[in-house]
Every structure is written in C-alpha cells, then in structure tokens.
Amino acid sequence: MSLQTTPVRKNKYSVGMFGCGRIAGVHLTNILRNRRLDLKWIVENDEKRIQQVKEDFHIGSEIPFYKSSERDRLLADESLDAVVVVSPTSTHTEYIVQSLKYGNDVFTEKPAGESAADIKLCYETAEKTGRILLTGFQRRYDESFRDVKTAIDSGRLGKIQAIKTTTRDSPKPSYTFLKSADSTGCNILADLCVHDIDMIVWLTKAQRPESIYINCHVHDPALQECREPDALAGLIKYPDGTLVTMDAFRESVYGYDIRLEAFGTQGMALAENPRESSTVIDGAFGGTSRRLYNSFPQRFEAPFAAELAHFIDCMDGKATPLITKEESLCVAEIIEKGILSYKEKRVVMF
C-alpha cells in the first residue's frame, strides 16, 4: 500500500484500463488521444469484446489484453500510475479498492459501487491510501449545465424553488441489457437517472432531501414479462421547499434528449439540447433544423474529454476531484430511497 501526501507531476502517466464495453469505447478514445497518458494494458474477460475493440481501434501487440484473474500482477507494477475502471458496475468496488491499495489513482465510471456502503468503502480506501478517486459524471463538465450551476450559485436566479430534469434515451438499450437488470430494483432510476440525480445533488450542494416519490410504467410489451420499467416520473422535496421533478424514458425516436431547468424567485436557467449542427433553413411555409445528437457519445463528446483532463489535473496536483465523497453518497442514498418508493408505491422520507 502506498500512502501519497504530495502529488508528483509527470509529463506522461502510465495507466491501465478495466473493461471493454460500450462506455469503455468512449474513454478509450480519449485515453489514446491524450498525449499525457500511456495505456499499458486492458483487462477484459470477453474474447468477442476484445476482438471488437482491437478492430475498432486498430490495436495490435502494443497494448496487451489480460484476464481479470491477472490483475494482482498488473496492479503491483510500480511503473503504473493510475487505473481507469469502466467494467460492469458489479465489479467496480472490488477493482477500485484493489487498485487504490496498490498505490494507483483511480478514475471510475459512475457509480463507484452498487450500494452506498460500497461507495463509502471506495472513498475511505482512497483517503487511507492518499490516492485520488474520481467518479465519472460527465454532465458536470458540459458548458450548458455549468452555466445553470453558475446562475444558481451567483444568486442571479434568487431563491431556487424548482428544478426539472428530462432524460429521454436514444437509441433504446438492447433487450439483453434491459432484461438482465436486477428485477428487485429499478434500473431506469439507478442506471439512466443517476446522472439527473447527480445534477440535482450538485445544484443543491448535496443537501439531504426531505422526501421522494417514484412512479414507473412499462410501455414496451417485450419488457412486460420481466417488469423492467421504461418510463419514470419522480418528485423530490427538500427541507427548504425546493421541488424537483424528473421524467425519464428509455426511448426517444427524435434523438438524445437531455434537459435541465432551474426556477427561482428572480429568474430561470435552462440547459437545452444542442443539435448535430446549428443550421436552420427557413422558407415561406416554415423552417427546419438538424436532428438532436443520436446518443450520449456524440452529445457529451467534449465533456468526456474534459473529464479525463480533470483527472490528469488532479494527478498533477492542480485540482481536487470535482465529485466528492459526500456528493457520491448523497446520489446513492437518493437512488436507494427512490427504489424503495417505487417498490412500495409510496412517498419515502429521508
């Protein structure tokens, strides 16, 4: 175990990566593009995924692939500086804790664990080892969402009375993914709305809510049997009177629709959707504009890159992680209370 007190800035950091799934492709692109990072290895157990990644990114023998059973040897390498965890959520806590104990800084896709207890363990391990742990919530690096945050914090909107979030996914996730979700939970809340909840926690400065109510429905006949909701509406109330409403849907035919609104006594701030281009064509009978971005890799291309740059800044000692332990635990608690509300069909108090 390595206890670090003062960051040691390097021109290039040596990193390893856990996972080869869909989100891994986004982060792999940015890692390979970043001249400050040297990718030493990738851990993945699925041979089909390995071959697909090799083909998509033209990877040869210069970046070796290993099985998860070999990770102790990989993490013990003293030349390794950091680890990027983009494997299935069920593996996050184990990989994060192990990486930190071997003296590596860690960037992990959200969430750091499947429960508040797991997330707490990850952050406590980071504190004990003196290493960096950054959880990936890329919306915080998006200029439009940051503008809403600035408008609130500056007092320009007055006292905040309402926050609204909208998430309408595109394209619909595969049925394999949706049907494999934990039937005792609420995947649309825990997986899809987790970014909305992070925004809510960020805007309210991790204030603990007073109550939450979550209602869902299954529209898609193919999901009826497994009872996996594809539509959600939620209401969160805060002790200061702020009302938060969420709506989320698993499929939007017109593109990836992500919006955020804050309403206060002195005004309103709205983060709208950007489009594939800013072109508008007007004529005598109306006008047309381009479609919304198809999905999250296109919509949040710049924020994903900024997120990785922030991680490097943290390793350089120029910044501290934008997402804190307290915020991550607050997100986890809201999700856990929300799942209870969904299952018991009632308002749940905090």
Structure described in brief:
The chain has 350 residues and is α/β, with parallel strands linked by helices.
Task: Give an overview in words.
One of its GO terms (biological process) is NADPH regeneration. Residues 145-269 form the GFO/IDH/MocA-like oxidoreductase domain. The protein is α/β, with parallel strands linked by helices and 350 residues long. It has helices spanning 22-33, 47-57, 71-75, 89-101, 116-129, 143-153, 175-179, 187-192, 194-203, 296-299, 301-316, 325-344, and strands spanning 13-18, 37-43, 65-66, 82-85, 105-109, 133-136, 160-168, 211-217, 231-237, 243-249, 257-264, 267-271, 280-283, 286-289, 348-349. α1 (22-33) links the parallel β1 (13-18) and β2 (37-43). α1 packs across α11 and α9 packs across α12.
